[in-house]
Each structure stands twice: as C-alpha cells, then as structure tokens.
Recover the amino acids of this structure.
C-alpha cells in the first residue's frame, strides 16, 4: 500500500474526527465558530456566463519534479497522455471527461476552489471572507466531513457556492488502485455530500493530489461531475506564511485561472488572511470571478 503523506494523514484524521461528531455536536461547533469579517467590503464582479473555451489548458507549465511531502500534482493532471488536451466527447450525462482548467466565463476571470473540508472551524471564516467581497467559490469536500457537518454544507449551498467531490478518504494513490475502489471512493462521497446538502448537485470531481485516471474521470463524468484540475497551487496546507501564499497566486496566475486553496486538514488562518488580501487585489487587477467550466 502506498505510504500516506503527512497532509493526507491530517485529512484522514480530520475526517475520522468529523465522523464521530453527531449532527447536534457538529452544529454546536459550527454555530460557535467566529464567522465575523472585518466589516463590509466591496462587492467584486462575479461572472457566470458560459464560454466555448471550456477545455483550454490555460497555458500550464511543464510538470516540475515533486518534493518529498508535496501531495499535490502541479495542475491536477493525470498520467494518461492527452488527458488535459482537447475535450473528449461528452458522455451520456453530457459532461466532458477532460480535466477542467478553465472558467465558465473565460476572459480575464479566475475560479477560487477550496479543498479538504468542510471544517467547522475554518470553513465559516472562509465563507465570511467570500461574502465580504461577493465572491463565489467551489468547495471540494471530503465525504465523511460533509456527512458530519450538514448544516455547514447547506450554508455553503445557500450562499451560492458550488460543490465538488474530493472522495471519501483523500487517497492520493487511488490512481494505482482497482477501478471498483476508485468508483466507491467517488460515488460514496458524492452521495454523502448531496445528502448533507439537502439534494444540491455535486458538479465537479477533484482527485486527491491530482490522482486522475481515464477510469475515474469516466466514472465522475458519467455521474454528472466534471473532472476539475487547477492551475495555481497555493500550497497553503504547508502553512508557508500569508505573504508566500499571496505571492504564489500573483506569480502563478499566468499558468491559468483555477486557484487551489484549502479549508480542511489543519490550521487555515493563513489561508483566511491570504484571501482577504487576494480577493480585492484580483478585482483591482481587472479580474472577475467565475466558476470552473462544467
């Protein structure tokens, strides 16, 4: 069995902790969280227009070597040739199996995506910052954590954000496992998230660490979920400092529009602070905010 990285161990431990929380306890933790923002801020442009550029790879760079402990593929690509190239014909569900690296609106827009939650502590704080600036995001959820915090999942949906399936156990080696295992990881998480949400549709699937395969892309698309990559990896889960997270986004936006943050798996105070700086900065640079293409 592949050895889990420190990041995945944190995710699995968080998911296990979430599972033992009853709905009442989870709600109590959630309601007791600090959801305040620093007062009302400017509402930033958020576009949901569609575009024909759904499957452009966004100028992604060549894959760099991964350092020890880095659990993220650089851009959410899988190991199969052409996986992130021209869009595959949509299946019966009408969803492309190609890994998405584009926004719905195209042009000068970005998509904020947030992984590994929901967290009763950090997700409400991130939601407050997004609300402060009128920005919608896509939350890539771990199934058991969504199941343990249904009130929080429903708050995310009620605020107009979108849902993404990030599997049951955040197994970064799932691409080396049998197809039946991959299917269970994806579809069980989808069910948990949709049940917790009260029936809201999960529109995307993001493989942990970019562990996509043609099989798991097909499974997700067949069940109505577009495989979702990323172009900018903030590596905020490493807690490198707010300034480093901010500078990473500023320097790597040239790689494409989908930006990866985290709300689960550990202390995300730096992520909250970085979003407070980045959202108004992006608007000042002329960016609008859009969901990833479906």
């Amino acid at each position: 069995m592949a050895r889990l990285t420190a990041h995945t161990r944190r995710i699995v431990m968080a998911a296990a902790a979430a599972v033992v929380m009853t709905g009442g306890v989870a709600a109590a933790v959630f309601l007791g969280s600090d959801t305040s923002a620093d007062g009302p801020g400017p509402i930033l442009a958020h576009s949901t227009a569609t575009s024909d550029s759904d499957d452009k790879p966004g100028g992604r760079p060549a894959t760099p070597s991964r350092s020890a402990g880095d659990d993220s593929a650089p851009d959410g690509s899988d190991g199969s040739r052409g996986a992130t190239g021209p869009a595959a014909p949509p299946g019966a569900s009408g969803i492309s199996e190609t890994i998405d690296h584009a926004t719905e609106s195209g042009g000068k827009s970005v998509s904020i995506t947030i992984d590994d939650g929901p967290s009763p502590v950090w997700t409400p704080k991130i939601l407050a910052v997004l609300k402060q600036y009128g920005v919608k995001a896509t939350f890539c959820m771990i199934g058991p954590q969504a199941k343990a915090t249904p009130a929080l999942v429903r708050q995310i949906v009620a605020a107009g954000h979108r849902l993404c399936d990030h599997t049951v156990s955040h197994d970064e080696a799932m691409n080396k496992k049998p197809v039946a295992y991959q299917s269970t990881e994806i579809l069980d998480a989808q069910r948990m998230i949709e049940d917790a949400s009260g029936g809201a549709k999960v529109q995307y699937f993001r493989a942990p660490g970019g562990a996509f395969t043609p099989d798991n892309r097909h499974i997700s698309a067949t069940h109505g979920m577009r495989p979702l990559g990323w172009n900018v990896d903030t590596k905020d889960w490493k807690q490198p400092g707010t300034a480093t997270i901010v500078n990473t986004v500023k320097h790597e936006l040239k790689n494409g529009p989908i930006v990866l943050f985290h709300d689960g798996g550990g202390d995300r105070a730096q992520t909250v602070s970085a979003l407070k700086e980045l959202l108004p900065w992006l608007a000042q640079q002329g960016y609008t905010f859009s969901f990833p293409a479906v």
Summary: The two ends are 33 Å apart (CA to CA). Confidence is low (pLDDT under 50) at residues 17-75, 77-88. Strands lie at 109-117, 137-141, 162-165, 202-205, 226-227, 232-233, 258-262, 288-289.
